[in-house]
Amino acid sequence: MNILLIGDDRSLGEGLQAFLHHNGFTCIWERDITDIKHIWRSASLAILGRQILGKDSTRLLPGLLTIKALPVIILTTCADVEEKIAALEAGARDYVTKPFAHIELLARIRAQIRPLGEGNLESGELLLVPSKRLVFWKGQKISLTHKEFELLLILVQMAGRVFTREELLNQVWGYKKFPSTRTIDMHILQLRRKIPNIKISTIHGVGYRLADDGHPDL
């Protein structure tokens, strides 16, 4: 698994890179957050410093997630609640305050990547078995096409997050093979038809979101 580490702290960067390599991960360490699109596309998870060479990474994060949606962990010295909320609302999945133990960060990384392919995924009455590409709604097996399954998997993995149509096209069809954005609309329509009462909301002018169990749509 490829982990992208972005931060300008040399001591922290070198130490984390060596630690992650020792624990079986491929870790690419970059000191600047600009011009990393090609590296971002190859990553499975990203770890970002809150401030990188004077740049606020959370302001740049939404744009990076349009290139490829992946789990992001923010590292910071700030324990302010509002700062944490801002990072999470920007698209981060976790927020770790310095100083921290490397083994704690490792546990958080494993917690983030576990739903991305290991074990079953649940969202309300919906159950996905990624290893067998099976979907169940209230215990009943649902037949989905390959693309419908991939689209649903992304929505379930990051339930509660708003995805633009371009992000979903990028993730399911690949950024070099964009069909029309209407393709996403048609596949969402099919998911709604096949899975009754699934809470996929249309965010007008933006895209779609699957309701998080902990934060259901009103």
From TrEMBL:
Which GO cellular component term is one of those annotated? protein-DNA complex
Annotated region of DNA binding: 118-212
Q: What region holds the Response regulatory domain?
A: 2-113
Q: Which PROSITE patterns match?
A: OMPR_PHOB, RESPONSE_REGULATORY
Q: Which domain of life is it from?
A: Bacteria
User: Would you kindly state one Gene Ontology biological process term found in this protein's UniProt entry?
Assistant: regulation of DNA-templated transcription
**Which terms does the record give in the GO molecular function aspect?**
phosphorelay response regulator activity; transcription cis-regulatory region binding
Record-given protein name = DNA-binding response regulator
Lineage of origin: Bacteria, Pseudomonadati, Pseudomonadota, Gammaproteobacteria, Pseudomonadales
